[in-house]
Design a protein that fits this description.
It is built from 2 helices and 7 strands. The protein is mainly β. It has a domain of 77 residues: Jelly Rolls (Sandwich), CATH 2.60.120.10. The strands form 2 sheets. It has a 4-stranded antiparallel β-sheet with strand order 1-7-2-5, with no helix packed on it. The longest helix is centred in the N-terminal third of the chain and has 14 residues.
């Protein structure tokens, strides 16, 4: 039977780890993961029970919605295209990659680009 002194083995293993350098021992893999907060808003919920919806809407070129409201407020994300949003007496233009907060007030949306525009609506509405 071969006897290996454990003290020497542990010392050799630790020495190898430390001599290899911290960049090897503690290196973290690069994942390409990137996190960006697009919109942050403090919100007081009107009810302890909320229905949430995530809706994708496509707008043909030059399409304009009639004046309307949604069941609840929430963030809206423009996936592609350019939209003119009129809400609460204010007009704003949003392009692909932008996020805006819709209040739930009377509004109209128009695709002012030459191609189909796409919008993701995240809606927060009191449970009925």
């Amino acid at each position: 039977m071969l006897k290996i002194p454990t003290t020497g083995l542990i010392t050799a293993a630790l020495s190898t780890l430390f001599l290899a350098g911290p960049h090897t021992v503690f290196a973290e893999p690069k994942t390409g993961f990137n996190r960006t907060v697009l919109l942050e808003k403090k919100l007081e919920l009107p009810s302890p029970s909320i229905d949430t919806k995530m809706i994708r809407v496509e707008f043909p070129p030059a399409f304009k919605t009639p004046w309307h409201t949604h069941e609840g407020p929430g963030p809206r994300y423009v996936v592609k295209g350019t939209l003119k949003v009129v809400e609460g007496g204010k007009t704003n233009t949003y392009s692909a990659g932008q996020v805006f907060w819709e209040t739930g007030e009377l509004m109209s949306v128009e695709n002012i680009g030459d191609n189909v525009a796409e919008l993701i609506i995240f809606e927060l509405a009191p449970t009925k």
